[in-house]
Amino acid sequence: MLCGMATVTYYADDLESAKDWYSEFLGTAPYFTVPGGYYEFRIGDYQAELGLINRKFAPSHPDRPGGQVVNWHVDDLKATFERLLSMGAKEFEPITERGAGTGFVTAAVVDPFGNVLGIMSNPHYLEMLAQARITPSGT
């Protein structure tokens, strides 16, 4: 059974530029590094791992973005989407409501290194986060 997202990895030909770009976007430096090969950030409410890997270690070299899209919950989807675009990311999927009135809204960009980065407003994520913050005594 899948128990939760642990690490998502993105690839870059210019690993140092990718590290700098993601450090600026995330507002934090990587906590773990393998010089010339890997940088890892811990981010978000559950300290999920976002890894940047030198593209020479990628299992395949597609000529365009695609495959799976990991959607990261964000508190302000529109502002985050606009910030990503202002930082040089390209629209991959516009802001899209998923089910009228459900509150699930997604968007995705292609980062300057060719990776798809999905963002999402996700009511279920917020419900789970609120439950996780309840202490065992219920207070």
Your description of this structure?
By secondary structure, this protein is α/β, with parallel strands linked by helices. The protein folds into two domains: 1-59, Roll (2,3-Dihydroxybiphenyl 1,2-Dioxygenase, domain 1); 62-139, Roll (2,3-Dihydroxybiphenyl 1,2-Dioxygenase, domain 1). The chain is built from three helices and eight strands, in the order βαββββαβββα. It has helices at residues 15-26, 77-86, 123-132, and strands at 7-12, 32-34, 38-43, 48-54, 71-73, 90-97, 105-110, 116-121. The strands form two sheets. It has a four-stranded mixed β-sheet, with helices on one face. A four-stranded mixed β-sheet has the order 5-8-7-6, with helices on one face. Strand 6 and strand 7 form a beta hairpin. The model has no long low-confidence stretch (mean pLDDT 87).
Provide a short characterization of the protein structure.
By secondary structure, this protein is of the alpha/beta class.
Features:
139 residues; alpha/beta; 2,3-Dihydroxybiphenyl 1,2-Dioxygenase, domain 1; 4-stranded mixed beta sheet; 3 helices
Shape: globular
**Uncertain runs:** none
Strand order of the largest sheet: 1-4-3-2
Number of helices: 3
> Within the CATH hierarchy, at the fold level, what is the topology of the largest domain?
2,3-Dihydroxybiphenyl 1,2-Dioxygenase, domain 1
Task: Let me know the number of strands.
Answer: 8
Can you lay out the helices and strands and say which pair or pack?
Layout: E1 7-12, H1 15-26, E2 32-34, E3 38-43, E4 48-54, E5 71-73, H2 77-86, E6 90-97, E7 105-110, E8 116-121, H3 123-132
Parallel strand pairs: 1-4, 5-8
Antiparallel strand pairs: 2-3, 3-4, 6-7, 7-8
